[in-house]
Design goal:
alpha/beta, seven-stranded parallel sheet, 17 helices, 17 strands
């Protein structure tokens, strides 16, 4: 496989809102980004993976006030919780951007001044239905029975002085870029959804400031106003690369190759974010890749239903690589996936304890008397799937190889060959060992600790139990 050493790969997760501790959806997106970043590193691409926290806005201000904490102390604690979870999940992000970082704040003010000087931002008034949960105004056609569909609450009708960003004057350019896949939105149905929205009506100019929210970045040209949280947040994708807000000096990693996001934040990522960039004359990201929600028992997770699965609960039960595997193999990346602890326990026992764990212990034990050379790991077996972001498909390819290897050993019975046909025994074990090295190479992107344990076991001829069986709850 030819590898172009000059290629670069920049991937981002959304920066998560710092109003509560991380949940399973945050873990899902971040593990997916980590697996893709590791894959491109294996291809020798110059890879950068950025994650972080969105730490301003009314929702955070109110959450901090409710428990009588300073907002900065509040977001420091929440952000620490996210960073600790990423360490536990073996996430290797290259940067963790926080929007309360001084460099980020200065860069945002540079951009706002630039947009104001260009005439892309102007002072006016905005009236609309404001959802505090979404931190955004909602048009009437976005409401269901008069309520925000994501928060099941009636938004407040608000009218206030604010600064607005011009949207319609670059709307046609945005539509053309989406149609030509210069700004690609995937899977395809989300591209159609965004185009239907953009072609159906002129965009309203959006409010980019609030006058009554203290917890935010002050507008450099009007300190009575603070920056509307989405504008502040989007710029992290550039400031996370140490960008200082200078439209002429763009980081070499830009544009982002893949920006992962959940479907609930698609519309703002497909409108406000690229329109900011078009006003600034900065190249758009190559792709927004949209994934679905994690359901449990066919329903959204909620404390009321008692079907919430936390990342900590998964880590305790399945371990780090078990958790990574179960999340990424749960269903097609880009669709909603449905998970229950019962089904995950069954899958853990079948795929990890029996499938992979059994194969490793058999190959290592049977090969302990032989002096076998280390095999060369290859990513070719699942390269096509990874490049298409078919993460569960890539894992399926690896597990097909595991199943084939287990079947090969069962069919050839090397424990019997060792007694009556030493040459055939060695031939079987060489093939099985090479395949196990290949499997370890495939797992490097998804289950890096397990991949390393397999290679160590093959070299030392000692296999620990990688995935102890879990007893199903009665």
């Amino acid at each position: 496989m030819f590898i172009n050493m000059s290629e670069k790969f920049y991937i981002t997760t959304p920066i998560y809102y710092a109003n509560a501790k991380p949940h399973i959806g945050h873990a899902y997106t971040t593990i997916a980004a980590d697996a893709l970043a590791r894959f491109y590193k294996l291809k020798n691409y110059k890879t950068f993976f950025s994650a972080g926290m969105d730490e301003h806005g009314l929702k955070i201000q109110k959450a901090a006030e409710a428990i009588r904490k300073d907002p900065q102390v509040f977001v420091d604690e929440v952000s620490a919780g996210f960073q600790n979870l990423w360490k536990k999940l073996n996430i290797q992000n290259d940067n963790f951007i926080r929007t309360t970082n001084e460099m980020h704040k200065k860069a945002v003010q540079e951009v706002l001044q630039n947009l104001f000087d260009k005439g892309a931002i102007y002072k006016g008034e905005y009236e609309g239905f404001y959802c505090v949960g979404c931190e955004q105004f909602k048009s009437e056609n976005e409401l269901v029975d008069g309520k925000c569909p994501d928060h099941d609450k009636i938004p407040e009708l608000m009218q206030e002085e604010c600064y607005l960003m011009k949207m319609t004057e670059v709307q046609e350019r945005l539509i053309e870029k989406i149609k030509k896949d210069e700004f690609r939105i995937a899977p395809e149905r989300y591209k159609k959804e965004v185009l239907s929205f953009l072609e159906g009506q002129p965009l309203k100019d959006v409010s980019i400031s609030r006058k009554n929210v203290q917890w935010g970045i002050q507008l450099p040209f009007d300190p009575e106003h603070t920056t509307y949280v989405w504008v502040d947040a989007f710029l992290n994708y550039l400031t996370g690369l140490d960008w200082r807000g200078d439209g002429q000096i763009i980081p070499e990693e830009w544009p982002a190759d893949i920006q992962l996001l959940g479907k609930d934040i698609l519309r703002v990522h497909a409108t406000i974010w690229p329109i900011i960039l078009l006003h600034l004359g900065i190249e758009l990201p190559k792709m927004l890749f949209v994934h679905g929600h994690i359901l449990s028992g066919g329903k959204k997770m909620s404390k009321t239903l008692g079907n919430v699965i936390s990342p900590e609960e998964m880590l305790e039960k399945f371990g780090v690589d078990g958790t990574r595997y179960l999340l990424l193999s749960a269903g097609t990346f880009g669709e909603d996936v449905d998970m229950t602890m019962e089904r995950m326990t069954e899958k853990y026992n079948a795929d990890l304890a029996n499938g992979l764990g059994n194969l490793v212990s058999r190959v290592v034990k049977l090969g302990e008397s032989l002096d076998l050379e280390a095999g060369e790991a290859s990513i070719e077996i699942y390269e096509e799937e990874m490049e298409k972001l078919e993460l569960s498909g890539a894992l399926k390819k690896i597990w097909n190889l595991i199943d084939e290897s287990n079947k090969f050993i069962a069919d050839n019975k090397p424990w019997e060959l060792a007694k009556n046909d030493v040459d055939k025994f060695k031939e079987v074990m060489v093939k099985s060992t090479i395949e196990l090295y290949n499997i370890a190479g495939g797992l490097d992107s998804f289950m890096p600790e397990t991949a390393e344990k397999i290679r160590t076991a093959l070299k030392t001829k000692k296999a620990e139990i990688l995935f102890p069986r879990i007893k199903q709850d009665a």
